[in-house]
User: Which sequence fits this backbone?
């Protein structure tokens, strides 16, 4: 019973970190209708800027965290301006954007390999990982609880931003129809930059937590493939879907690791993806896009 | 000819066979894939196991690898290709990773992540060139016949194609199945060339490379896809001494091509009199682009 509860808390905590990344995927998909495979690199940029701000500049975690969020957000805007905007303005074939995003993800990953090297780095102990006893029922680490809380705060903030602000309204309108939002006077170019910035910031939060949970290395961005799977399971383009999908995925992964075999956890993730697509291709919350290419 | 040159030509032929498969699916039928390395893995492992464990002759083993790829592609293609859009692309990611993970974890059959050693080296240069010529000829005939027109019709306007009486979902599945066969055969030949295969050789990077090569050469151009394969294979060979920067250059080339010339090197044109007339002719014939 204790183990089960413990694995559920671990699963929720991992799932909430996936949710931070998956929400970014879904935001970009809902506006531009392509899967941004360079999303994982924003996470790596966030992780490395946090690492160097802590180690080299000797900042405290709040300053370093803030800096890395800004760095990831800025690089997301830069990626969009350099690689996607020229293609977007020329054609509406999303396939080209998809391939450009894969190219960007290879480029950013290998910039880190070339400049800082491919070795694994551990973040200094800035987030406590001491064991915490939960009312005598289960023992879990403080880190899991903190990442769960931070993720909930970030997602709540995003929800408020999307529903209560003018720009949030613009984003929701653009998700419905980008062209008409533009005709209604929304500055589409600035809106897309904003969406990429928000996605980059959320990815960086996820990146910091993931580099504490595992270690930091240039290929860490590859882990976002799971966040992508979560976004698909929940329904691409749907934010609640991305969160629910991430929690399902985190739970499935941790329960498999805890009770069956930790080698099978990745297999379970990808089987879930295939099964979802076979039985409910639009995902749990996805709107039906039967004709959309 | 030195053994090194022969090796590069053999590798080029193997890559070209897989690229032709993806070219049929992505270039001519308009279905995007991110998991075709999985079909190569199926073909490679089927060939390896059949030749090493069951001492089968390599020719039926390679064909069996292709047929295994067909079966898996059919099962995956039926539900996902009924829908338009990215669904097959997303499913192919899941399929690709799932197959790689199964190969890594099914120790008793595939010997796990350490790879499968001791495969007889049957893929000499003449074998690879022979396979390439036969498969290229078959694809060329297919694309220039009524099937080719059917594939292109479904790519360009699936509603119009459906109105003409084509079952577009079935056409897409047929295209997928054929392309899986090409990739399976290519994987089998790769196993016979290297005499050792490993699940990690067929990861998502390889799948991306297959699709990238086709887009790089020009969607809907068979000769463009072969040209793209040649360039990418040679570039990766040439940059081998500075391996650190190799992937960086590869990624940058991918982005730059997409930004500057998204239709690829050849566009939709094939090598032939038409292309030369367009390039050098006084007045190009009115070739309307879609």
Assistant:
């Amino acid at each position: 019973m204790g183990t089960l509860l413990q694995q559920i808390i671990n699963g929720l905590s991992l799932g909430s970190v996936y949710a931070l990344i998956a929400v970014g995927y879904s935001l970009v998909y809902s506006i531009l209708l392509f899967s941004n495979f360079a999303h994982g690199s924003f996470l790596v940029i966030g992780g490395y800027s946090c690492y160097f701000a802590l180690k080299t500049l000797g900042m405290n975690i709040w300053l370093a965290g803030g800096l890395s969020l800004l760095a990831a957000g800025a690089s997301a805007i830069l990626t969009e301006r350099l690689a996607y905007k020229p293609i977007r303005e020329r054609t509406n074939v999303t396939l080209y954007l998809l391939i450009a995003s894969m190219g960007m993800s290879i480029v950013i990953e290998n910039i880190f390999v070339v400049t800082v090297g491919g070795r694994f780095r551990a973040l200094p102990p800035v987030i406590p990982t001491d064991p915490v006893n939960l009312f005598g029922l289960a023992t879990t680490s403080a880190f899991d609880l903190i990442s769960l809380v931070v993720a909930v705060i970030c997602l709540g903030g995003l929800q408020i931003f999307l529903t209560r602000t003018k720009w949030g309204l613009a984003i929701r309108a653009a998700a419905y129809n980008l062209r008409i939002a533009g005709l209604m006077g929304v500055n589409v170019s600035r809106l897309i930059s904003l969406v990429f910035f928000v996605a980059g910031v959320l990815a960086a939060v996820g990146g910091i937590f993931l580099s504490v949970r595992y270690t930091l290395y240039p290929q860490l961005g590859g882990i976002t493939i799971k966040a992508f799977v979560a976004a698909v399971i929940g329904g691409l383009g749907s934010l609640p879907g991305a969160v629910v999908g991430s929690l399902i995925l985190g739970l499935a992964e941790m329960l498999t690791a805890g009770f069956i075999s930790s080698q099978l956890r990745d297999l379970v993730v990808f089987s879930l993806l295939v099964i979802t697509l076979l039985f409910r291709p639009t995902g749990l919350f996805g709107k039906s896009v039967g004709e959309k290419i | 000819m030195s053994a090194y040159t022969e090796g590069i030509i053999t590798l080029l032929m193997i890559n070209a066979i897989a690229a032709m498969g993806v070219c049929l699916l992505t270039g001519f039928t308009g279905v995007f894939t991110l998991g075709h390395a999985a079909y190569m893995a199926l073909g490679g492992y089927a060939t390896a196991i059949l030749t090493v464990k069951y001492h089968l002759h390599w020719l039926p083993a390679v064909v069996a690898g292709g047929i295994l790829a067909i079966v898996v592609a059919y099962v995956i293609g039926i539900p996902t290709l009924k829908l338009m859009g990215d669904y097959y692309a997303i499913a192919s990611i899941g399929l690709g990773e799932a197959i790689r993970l199964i190969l890594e974890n099914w120790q008793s059959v595939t010997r796990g992540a350490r790879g499968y050693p001791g495969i007889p080296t049957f893929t000499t240069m003449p074998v690879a060139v022979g396979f390439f010529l036969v498969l290229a000829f078959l694809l060329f005939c297919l694309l220039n016949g009524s099937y080719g027109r059917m594939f292109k019709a479904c790519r360009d306007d699936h509603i119009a194609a459906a109105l003409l009486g084509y079952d577009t979902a079935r056409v897409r599945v047929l295209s997928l199945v054929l392309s899986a066969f090409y990739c399976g055969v290519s994987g089998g030949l790769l196993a016979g060339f290297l005499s050792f295969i490993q699940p990690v050789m067929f990861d998502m990077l390889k799948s991306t490379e297959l699709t990238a090569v086709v887009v790089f050469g020009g969607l809907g151009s068979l000769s463009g896809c072969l040209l793209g394969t040649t360039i990418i294979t040679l570039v990766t060979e040439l940059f081998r001494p500075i391996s650190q920067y190799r992937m960086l250059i590869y990624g940058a080339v991918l982005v730059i091509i997409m930004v500057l010339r998204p239709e690829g090197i050849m566009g939709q044109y094939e090598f032939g009199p038409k292309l030369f007339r367009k390039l050098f002719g006084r007045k190009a014939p009115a070739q309307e682009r879609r």
In short: The radius of gyration of chain A is 19 Å. Chain A has a mean pLDDT of 83. The domain at 2-119+136-279 of chain A is CATH 1.10.3470 (ABC transporter involved in vitamin B12 uptake, BtuC).
